[in-house]
Amino acid sequence: MSNPPPDLPRLRTLETWLALTLDQVRERIAAVELREAEVRRGRSARPPVPDWTIELGIGQGRRPLYVHVGGCHLAGDRRYPVSRDAAVRAVTEGVEACSHCRADTELGIIG
Description:
Elements: H1 8-45, E1 52-56, E2 64-69, E3 79-82, H2 84-92, E4 96-97, H3 103-107
Parallel strand pairs: 2-4
Antiparallel strand pairs: 1-2, 1-3
């Protein structure tokens, strides 16, 4: 502020307003710091991405639809992690490999 008011009542009013504003800023800083700490804790507690997943279909029976490389962003929500051997077995038994992540190529299976 370049020119504060010259009289004491207005200076006290300005002081009160600045103190309230500073309190609000400090509360906001504390809330943002808490949120950032929660995000860091969440990231560190996140389970590791599996190497392979199988995506299931919808409905009764929920048959396996696709084999994906772990972390494939086209894999749907209905998936579960599997071992490399289970992924190989699924592809060789007719479960389609994802055409995006090329799970069959990654598994060393020539389609």
